[in-house]
Inverse folding.
């Protein structure tokens, strides 16, 4: 986790320095605000990763001498085939189109989104695979 | 509860090879396998490339004559707007971080799939529907968006660009923007949490590193774009005044928001292709990449610097602090230069195999370096005053972006096609395609530099005879048509390999990284077994134990004390 | 659609580039040579750029010239190196495995420091030129207001003379040679780009923000000006011309125009 943490920390700190320089040199607040937000986008994940780094032992993928056998058990749950991302995508598409063609597409779209989101969640609770 | 424990909570054993689950159209609709989604992304984005390329052909046909009449002025404006938007939002980015990264990144780090497979599927559907939405613009009343891919306010306001076309463009950008964000989350999480044991961060292949950095940049840049699009939509329809002077807003603010996305976006488009080239040069030189850590830090430096250079697109607005942006923009040339020299250093002393992927990668190196030279010049504000918004800029960004996406993109396609399909492409046709594309591409864009220096602005369907750019435009158009022709050779090549397959085998190129350790195409959940990971090149180490990386020093001399494992 | 016949003679002293006379059948074979041909027709050391008909533009042109010399050196080193590698290490050696060199810290530092020095030099030169180009004279000889609108231009002189696009006629801006004109640039609607290629200079005309810059023409003649930033349907036809005359001619012209004659 150390490298992951430092990558984000490095970006966050670098952008923070740029923010300070820009703020006091350019005296333009729109850009300084965007830079400040960007620094946050570096520092927030860094905080998260740093927090975990302190609380866990090096994982097998962080150890140079680790062998494949150390990763016993499964790596995670990976659903195979599910229709719901497609339904959700079409729902989001129709909902977004309502910005152009009026509210009627959003009615269908939101219904699809609710249906797909609920079903996908239930599917996960049943154990991942369908 | 730690993350490590969470990882092994749910058991789901990978199955070895063979058909799995549904087939046909239902498989395509329901699959959450990163390989299927990656291929979907790749083929979809190549279709978008063909459509956007056809638009470029019409644009170049219009410019053959100073007062061409191929299309109307309105149509011309729509064509270059959608051409640019498709190439940037729907081809160059998704081809790399949706297609290649999706397919290759989990394989390269020894992962069974992406971290969030269903989110991955969702981002493909958002991408496909977003792309469809953008093309729908041509079929609505008033036509597609016609304000350029940058959609400068207040030209993009409802008064100046009425009709549903621009709204469809906004919706398309929002949908593909979310698709990009989801993919980025997936890529970064996968690389951080699903690596195989022993695959430390500094053993990840450069391609994977570049995709991680691209993911980080997407997460920085795309939300701003989406926010800007929402503001633009609100200005158009909800009566807000973010970008209208009359209501107290600021048109320049749009440019700031857009380019704060837009410049990182340029590196989002370029870094994946740098990664592809960084995979190909070592394999076809039979050497490790030269200066691995330097390359990683250069990539990170580009990412950091790219957040502070947005206003070099706004030098001529007279509203920005020129020395600040000039300094940071010029500084980006240093890590970029490091990359170029690293690639040359990788080839140095190698045993070069001039196969099709290496040729395309070299084509990328040449066009990208040329575009880089003009890029450094454009980073200088006074010079930018002279050529801003002319064809000089058009030539520059086509050489760095289109050159990168097309040459490095095809290099990657030829390189990984055996892994994607288990088949080889024909070498001869590939070489023919490369030489035609390489000559034609430079024939298209080098004259545009000269046309720009003579004062031909971008985005004009007609120009003056007295500009003395007619001949340059004709050369450029012929080059463009030949580039288009080279794509037909590629299609023929794909068709032949589909009809008369040549089996590729698991590792046709003597590849170095983990994707070559599995079968072609890989089985469901990727690996039946993994080689030990003791360096950046586990597959090389396994196939060439006498030259394995852990047995040699940094300059290639054998270490004495290490036993081969 | 407006017709595109531009009735002023353009770019005095830059004739002689008659590439259109090349026989059509020869155009494609000549394509690659075309770039070199175009350059050789004018002065080779111009590298295709206008030499700048203002002092500001000429400064930018000199900067461009320096850049090109630097690019030539860097390109020879980079592409020369690449070519050397391809020729020397491209000979087929079968499956022979070369020496597995990973890195060389000295060379890596070298190719980090040298580019850094080069961009440092470019930055130094850029800031110098930028300060000269962006300098605004406190007491200019002429104050001129340029208003950009969809799709035309209005040039307003201090005595109230106003030149504006009318129908198919493109407006002409008249400037005195050797004297400094301070331009106030505004836009009435969308973002436009004030661009005179012969001056090697462009600047956005922004709605809600006023830009000031100086032009000091140092060459007589008539030049094409145009809008460089996409501004809607007739963006391509948003042209104007610039006529640079001697100060005496300028004064005569200005007084002959009378108050609001063409407004």
């Amino acid at each position: 986790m150390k490298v992951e943490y430092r990558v984000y920390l490095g970006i966050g700190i670098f952008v923070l320095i740029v923010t300070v320089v820009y703020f006091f040199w350019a005296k333009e607040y729109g850009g300084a605000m965007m830079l400040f937000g960007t620094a946050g986008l570096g520092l927030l994940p860094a905080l998260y990763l740093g927090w975990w780094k302190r609380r866990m032992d090096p994982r097998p993928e962080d150890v140079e001498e680790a062998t494949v056998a150390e990763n016993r058990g499964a790596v995670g749950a990976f659903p195979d085939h599910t229709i719901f991302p497609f339904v959700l995508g079409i729902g989001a598409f129709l909902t977004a189109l309502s910005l152009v063609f009026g509210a009627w597409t959003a009615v269908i779209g939101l219904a699809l989104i609710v249906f797909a989101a609920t079903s996908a969640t239930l599917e996960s609770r049943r154990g991942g695979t369908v | 509860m730690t993350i490590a424990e969470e990882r092994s909570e749910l058991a789901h054993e990978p199955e070895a090879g063979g058909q799995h689950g549904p087939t046909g159209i239902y498989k395509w609709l329901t699959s959450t396998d990163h390989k299927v989604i990656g291929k979907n992304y790749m083929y979809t984005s190549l279709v978008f490339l063909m459509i956007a390329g056809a638009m470029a052909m019409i644009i170049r046909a219009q410019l053959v004559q100073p007062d061409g009449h191929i299309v109307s002025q309105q149509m011309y404006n729509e064509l270059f707007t959608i051409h640019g938007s498709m190439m940037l939002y729907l081809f160059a980015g998704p081809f790399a971080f949706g297609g290649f990264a999706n397919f290759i990144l989990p394989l390269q780090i020894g992962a069974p799939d992406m971290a969030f497979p269903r989110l991955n599927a969702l981002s493909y559907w958002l991408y496909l529907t977003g792309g469809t939405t953008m093309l729908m613009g041509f079929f609505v009343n008033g036509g597609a968006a016609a304000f350029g891919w940058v959609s400068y306010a207040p030209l993009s306001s409802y008064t100046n660009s009425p009709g549903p076309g621009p709204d469809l463009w906004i919706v398309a950008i929002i949908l593909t923007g979310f698709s990009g964000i989801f993919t980025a989350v997936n890529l970064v999480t996968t690389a951080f949490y699903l690596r195989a044991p022993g695959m430390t961060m500094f053993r990840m292949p450069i391609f994977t590193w570049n995709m991680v950095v691209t993911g980080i940049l997407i997460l920085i840049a795309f939300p701003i774009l989406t926010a800007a699009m929402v503001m633009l939509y609100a200005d158009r329809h909800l009566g807000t005044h973010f970008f209208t002077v009359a209501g107290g807003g600021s048109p320049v603010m749009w440019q700031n928001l857009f380019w704060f996305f837009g410049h990182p976006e340029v590196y989002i488009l370029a870094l994946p292709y740098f990664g592809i080239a960084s995979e190909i040069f070592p394999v076809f030189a039979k050497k490790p990449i030269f200066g691995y850590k330097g390359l990683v830090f250069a990539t990170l430096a580009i990412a950091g610097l790219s957040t502070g250079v947005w206003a070099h697109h706004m030098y001529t607005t007279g509203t920005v602090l020129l020395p600040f942006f000039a300094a940071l923009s010029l500084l980006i040339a240093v890590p970029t230069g490091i990359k170029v020299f690293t690639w040359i250093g990788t080839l140095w002393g190698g045993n070069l195999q001039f196969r099709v992927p290496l040729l395309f990668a070299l084509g990328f190196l040449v066009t990208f370096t040329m575009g880089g030279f003009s890029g450094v010049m454009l980073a200088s504000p006074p010079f930018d005053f002279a050529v801003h918004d002319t064809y000089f800029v058009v030539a520059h960004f086509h050489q760095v972006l289109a050159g990168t996406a097309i040459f490095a993109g095809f290099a990657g396609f030829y390189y990984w096609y055996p892994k994607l399909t288990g088949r080889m492409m024909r070498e001869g046709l590939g070489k023919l395609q490369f030489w035609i594309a390489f000559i034609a591409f430079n024939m298209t864009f080098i004259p545009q530099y000269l046309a720009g220096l003579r004062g031909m602005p971008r985005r004009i369907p007609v120009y003056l005879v007295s500009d003395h750019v007619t001949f340059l435009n004709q050369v450029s158009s012929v080059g463009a048509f030949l580039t288009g022709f080279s794509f037909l050779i590629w299609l023929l090549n794909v068709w032949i390999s589909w009809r008369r397959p040549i089996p590729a085998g698991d590792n046709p190129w003597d590849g170095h990284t983990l994707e070559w350790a599995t079968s072609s195409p890989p089985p469901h959940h990727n690996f039946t077994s993994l080689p030990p990971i003791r360096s950046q090149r586990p597959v090389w180490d396994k196939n060439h134990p006498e030259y394995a990386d852990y047995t040699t020093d940094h300059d290639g001399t054998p270490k004495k004390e290490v036993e081969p494992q | 659609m407006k017709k595109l016949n531009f009735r002023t003679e353009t770019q005095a002293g830059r004739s002689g580039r008659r590439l259109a006379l090349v026989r059509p059948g020869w155009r494609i074979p000549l394509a690659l040579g075309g770039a070199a041909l175009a350059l050789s027709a004018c002065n080779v050391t111009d590298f295709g750029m206008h030499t700048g008909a203002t002092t500001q533009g000429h400064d930018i042109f000199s900067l461009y010239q320096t850049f090109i010399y630097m690019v030539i050196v860097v390109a020879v080193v980079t592409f020369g190196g690449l070519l050397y590698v391809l020729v020397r290490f491209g000979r087929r050696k079968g499956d022979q495995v070369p020496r597995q060199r990973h890195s060389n810290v000295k060379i890596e530092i070298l190719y980090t420091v040298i580019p850094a020095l080069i961009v440092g030099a470019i930055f130094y030169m850029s800031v110098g030129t930028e300060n000269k180009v962006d300098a605004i004279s406190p007491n200019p000889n002429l104050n001129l207001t340029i208003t950009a609108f969809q799709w035309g231009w209005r040039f307003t002189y201090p005595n109230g003379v106003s030149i504006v696009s009318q129908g198919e006629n493109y407006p002409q801006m008249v400037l005195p040679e050797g004297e400094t004109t301070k331009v106030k640039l505004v836009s009435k609607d969308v973002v436009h780009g004030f661009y005179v290629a012969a001056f090697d200079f462009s600047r956005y005309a922004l709605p809600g923000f006023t830009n000031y810059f100086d032009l000091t023409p140092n060459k007589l003649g008539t030049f094409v000006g145009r809008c460089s930033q996409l501004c809607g349907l007739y963006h391509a036809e948003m042209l104007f011309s610039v006529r640079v005359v001697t100060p005496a001619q300028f004064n005569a012209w200005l007084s002959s125009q009378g108050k609001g004659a063409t407004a």
